[in-house]
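Per reviewer request, we include the raw input and output of the structure prediction for the construct analysed in the revised manuscript.
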Amino acid sequence: MDTLQKQRISELRNKGESYAKIADALGISVNTIQSYCRRAAVAEKEKLSPSPKCENCRKPMKDSVQSNRRFCCDECRYSWWSKNSDKRPGKETLCAQCNKPFTYQGSRPRKFCSRKCYGRSKVVA
């Protein structure tokens, strides 16, 4: 594919033409057109959307394979979660010692609501 064909693809795509119509007009495979548009970030004007922004620093994020990213880097992710620890999803259960309900975060299930209850469970009477 030469530069003239690439320019023509961009022009037609920006006008809203489908991949099939562009392929017919230029005599190139539909898959080649799709691949070029994806790699060169050529899209229809109506479908162009602003790039997502990092939830912490509000800077625009680079395009990535992972479309549901919320943060631009690990530092922003750590910073946001440390400021918003109350928004973490928690799990509720009953304490094995005092039977009071408590909430915990993380993947490991907890049995006791505190170190005190844990210590009481170890005492042999």
